[in-house]
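stage 2 :: seqdesign
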């Protein structure tokens, strides 16, 4: 859900002072910055190592070495260096906490990342990204109320933060606030008219709440924003299926497959439509394709079983329904109980 933004060096070039050892530390520090800017990360680390060895009070060396280590995916080393900087830093800057949060998150330590993002936001209420990432972690934890409140802080810090509106909408939707979610998705698309996922999510929500025409409009906007994206065609096709517009649904599923021949959802949905139209063998062919792309696609097994049953292949149907249950589709058990001995 969350994108991790880049962390940049503290790029202050220091002035040589009158102490020889300190002069050498500053030279090494400045050389490290130059090497980083030239993408010679390993040499930059060596220069910051030297600066720290010569003058451990040159605390920006710790931070910058942490940035270099994170750039090389050495998150443990980066966290150690950011922590050293934080212990030595007497300012109220949010930057080290934010950078350490990034490293914690990328290393899989989400609780520690959340704590640091919140600390960064406490130190700087204008740090919209800190609140945004914290909200994302709350969302991942299933704490949707907390996620919504934290996304609000991101929006308060940056009123044009389309992704924060988008993700607050998702949190509100999960929390059962459909009205608030709809408003946030609409605000996200006002700010970013090409934000396809907002149109698609809004369309899906409107469909669930019974506003089929409104959903149709939003999926249309998604397709206009990205005419080459198969997902929007699948979603609109499914909506048209529900609205009994079978020709329109078939056209959308066909288009989705034309755009992405490896989209299992497109084949599964088209298979459901073919089954509805009593083209049972055509449906089985589509379910076969969906399963070949994703062998763990439980619903494709269940649906293929239905089509096989319609062709009087009860044994084959029962095998598919059993496979569906093994892949987490509990509803397939109703078919097994009714038709399989």
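stage 2 :: out
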């Amino acid at each position: 859900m969350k994108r991790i933004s880049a962390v940049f060096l503290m790029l202050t070039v220091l002035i040589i002072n009158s102490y020889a050892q300190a002069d050498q530390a500053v030279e090494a520090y400045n050389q490290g910055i130059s090497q980083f800017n030239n993408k010679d990360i390993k040499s930059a680390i060596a220069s910051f190592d030297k600066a720290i060895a010569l003058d451990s009070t040159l605390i920006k060396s710790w931070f910058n070495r942490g940035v270099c280590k994170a750039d090389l995916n050495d998150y443990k080393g980066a966290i150690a260096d950011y922590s050293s900087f934080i212990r030595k830093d007497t300012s109220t800057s949010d930057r080290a906490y934010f950078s350490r949060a990034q490293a914690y998150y990328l290393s899989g330590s989400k609780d520690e990342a959340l704590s640091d993002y919140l600390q960064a936001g406490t130190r700087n209420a204008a740090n919209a990204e800190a609140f945004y990432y914290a909200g994302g972690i709350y969302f991942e934890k299933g704490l949707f109320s907390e996620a919504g409140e934290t996304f609000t802080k991101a929006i308060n810090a940056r009123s044009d933060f389309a992704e924060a509106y988008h993700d607050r909408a998702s949190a509100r939707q999960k929390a059962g606030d459909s009205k608030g979610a709809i408003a946030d998705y609409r605000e996200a698309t006002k700010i970013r008219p090409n934000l396809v996922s907002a149109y698609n999510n809004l369309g899906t929500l409107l469909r669930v709440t019974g506003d089929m025409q409104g959903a149709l409009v939003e999926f249309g906007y998604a397709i206009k924003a990205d005419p080459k994206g198969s997902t929007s065609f699948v979603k609109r096709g499914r909506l048209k299926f529900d609205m009994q517009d079978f020709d329109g649904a078939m056209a959308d599923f066909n288009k989705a497959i034309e755009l992405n021949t490896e989209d299992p959802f497109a084949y599964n949905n088209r298979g459901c439509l073919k089954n509805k139209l009593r083209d049972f063998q055509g449906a089985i062919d589509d379910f076969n394709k969906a399963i070949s792309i994703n062998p763990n696609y439980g619903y494709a097994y269940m649906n293929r079983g239905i089509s096989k049953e319609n062709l009087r292949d009860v044994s084959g149907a029962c095998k598919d329904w059993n496979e569906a249950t093994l892949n987490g589709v509990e509803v397939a058990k109703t078919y097994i109980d009714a038709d399989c001995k």
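stage 3 :: structure notes
- The two ends are 44 Å apart (CA to CA).
- Residues 1-124 form a domain with the Serine Threonine Protein Phosphatase 5, Tetratricopeptide repeat fold (CATH 1.25.40.10).
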